[in-house]
Amino acid sequence: MEKKYQEVLSKINQADSILIGASNGLAISGGIHIFAENADFLENFGDFRKKYGFRNIVQGAFYPYPSEEEKWAFFSRMYAYLINNKEVSPVMKNLYELVKDKNCFVVTTNTDSHFTLAGFPKERLFEIEGNSRYLQCSHGCHNQIYQGDEILNEMAQNQENGKVPSNLIPKCTECGGPMQVHVEVDRNFLKGEEWQTSLQAYKNFIQKAHGKKIVLLELGVGARNQLIKAPFMELTNLEENATYITLNMGRELYIPDSIAAKSIGIDGNIGEVLQQLAQLK
Ligand SMILES: [Zn+2]
What we know:
The strands form 2 sheets. Strands 3-2-1-7-8-9 form a 6-stranded parallel beta sheet, with helices on both faces. It has a 3-stranded antiparallel beta sheet with strand order 5-4-6. It has 11 helices and 9 strands. It is α/β, with parallel strands linked by helices. It has helices at 2-14, 24-29, 39-52, 57-62, 68-82, 90-99, 114-118, 149-157, 193-208, 229-238, 270-280, and strands spanning 17-22, 104-108, 125-127, 130-137, 146-147, 179-183, 214-219, 242-248, 263-267. Zinc ion is lined by residues 137, 139, 141-142, 172, 174-175, 177. Residues 137, 139, 141-142, 172, 174-175, 177 line the site of zinc ion.
């Protein structure tokens, strides 16, 4: 195994650019499992589970709440759980240590802000499905997204019987309508100016890396993922000097034959693998 780790480190070392792709598997290794009905879920969302019957955070995010007061009770709680006063997990710390001196870009479907928390700059981060700390107009009447930390924190701290006080509920400043977190839970998800800027930065990064040594470092992205994995495999195929490094568990670790010669796969707990790599660096 150590030989494989050395190979990964040497590829990272020699790379001109490193493109990191991360999804739910990375969040899980950092202790956040939004699809699980685990002890954490019961402790933090047990009252919602009892009231509505949903069994994990994702189901809660898609639930059709009967009122704005109830909707914001959930989303502010989700914010508090995922983001507020969070410390950087050892997993993210190790990842950052591993690549901090390199020319990096991150693309992720995680909405938990843990990359910026770990020190990755926002302008080198594309959060495809949004971020739980931002708000948008539910009707999408205008493209602006808003920093929601203050109001989300206030709502998280002031909820009773599964409701937040009506006077705290955010309203769209343009149309007066309801707002929602800027996370892709429905078709109203805004792909406005900031989202487009991040997408463009992602594309520019890939374009600049063309022909040079690029490492695609994929962390906890499911075998059939179309948003991150499919484009990463395609890019590996196209780029002569690309190396595709994928970290995942068991059946989710997938490398197609067409790029096998340019690929390194490590099957195991992502947190432990990153720790090993950071130590060996
Ligand atoms: Zn509006």
